[in-house]
Task: inverse folding
């Protein structure tokens, strides 16, 4: 990333990041416009969202503002300023009832407020900015709070010797977040536009993912109990099959996406090198 100048946007947690950070709350409408005008970025990547499924069910109006209105306004502002725009969407726009993988041509059928608002956000971006990239993602990595991704969930709990559930009936395509960032940059450099599935190339269930993490980190996989998401007590509905095909993306990029084991190796190497502590040190 050193060849790119990065500006971040945050609500106030980032105090000493190695790039300039604008403190902003996106509930203030159009708060981003002065940032665009003062920095003149080549690219904007919108990662902001209400991405917690349970919170979306509880606060649908907030989900609408962050997942539909904000992307529409950002897409419009970028189109007006000739800035290339990427909007992150979700694999969860599908209801997961299909056998096999979903392509970009498949008709979404969202379950719940999160997925519904993310789908409407995709459509709002498409309408406002035909040159935008809409990336349906699923990723894991080390987060600022240390507890955001499924990879961290397994490392934290298994590391503490705690028993955890691993859903055998949720298939997904996890991508290491560094691979996601590299792939988004490659898409921008290739000047792609439109809707893409930007997930890992290898589908697996969440239990298998936990076992892979446990083996890589030398943790006890026997602590992971295979089970069903239907008995998990989670209130928002989850789709069972989120196997998304990356055929369109790898064809348009002209090369295959990085494989799962390379990503897991990278995730583990960062752990060995103290990266989780390093990024936590960026916050107050
Ligand atoms: N993680 C995945 O595997 C996955 C899967 C499918 C789709 N996605 C999509 O990928 C994107 C990033 O997801 P994530 O997992 O990284 O979620 P996340 O950790 O909840 O990130 C959302 C970001 O939005 C920021 N944000 C929320 N409300 C804000 C507000 N009012 N003002 C300013 N910033 C605000 C959050 O800031 P705070 O840190 O202050 O809360 C956070 O940095 C989202 O569009 C999500 O739908 C992620």
Result:
């Amino acid at each position: 990333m050193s060849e790119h100048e990065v500006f971040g946007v945050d609500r106030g947690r980032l105090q000493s990041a190695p790039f300039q950070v604008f403190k902003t709350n996106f509930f203030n409408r159009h708060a981003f416009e002065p940032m665009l005008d003062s920095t003149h970025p080549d690219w904007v990547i919108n990662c902001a969202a209400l991405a917690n499924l349970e919170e979306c069910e509880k606060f649908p109006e907030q989900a609408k503002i962050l997942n539909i209105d904000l992307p529409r306004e950002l897409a419009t502002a970028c189109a007006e300023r000739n800035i290339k725009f990427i909007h992150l969407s979700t694999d969860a726009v599908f209801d997961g009832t299909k056998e096999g993988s979903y392509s970009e041509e498949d008709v979404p059928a969202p379950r719940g407020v999160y997925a519904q608002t993310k789908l409407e956000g995709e459509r709002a971006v498409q309408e406002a900015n035909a040159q935008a990239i809409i990336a349906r993602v699923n990723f894991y990595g080390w987060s600022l709070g240390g507890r955001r991704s499924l990879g961290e969930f397994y490392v934290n709990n298994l590391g503490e010797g705690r028993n955890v559930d691993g859903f055998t009936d949720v298939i997904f395509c996890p991508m290491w977040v560094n691979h996601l960032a590299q792939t988004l940059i490659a898409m921008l450099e290739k000047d792609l536009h439109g809707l893409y599935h930007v997930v890992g190339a290898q589908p697996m269930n969440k239990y298998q993912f936990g076992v892979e993490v446990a083996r890589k980190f030398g943790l006890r996989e026997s602590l992971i109990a295979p089970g069903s998401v239907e008995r998990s007590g989670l209130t928002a509905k989850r789709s069972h099959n989120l196997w998304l095909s990356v055929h369109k993306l790898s064809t348009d990029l002209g090369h295959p996406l990085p494989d799962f084991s390379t990503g897991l190796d990278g995730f583990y190497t960062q752990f060995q090198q103290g990266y989780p502590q390093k990024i936590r040190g960026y916050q107050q």
User: Anything to note?
Assistant: The longest strand covers residues 84-90.
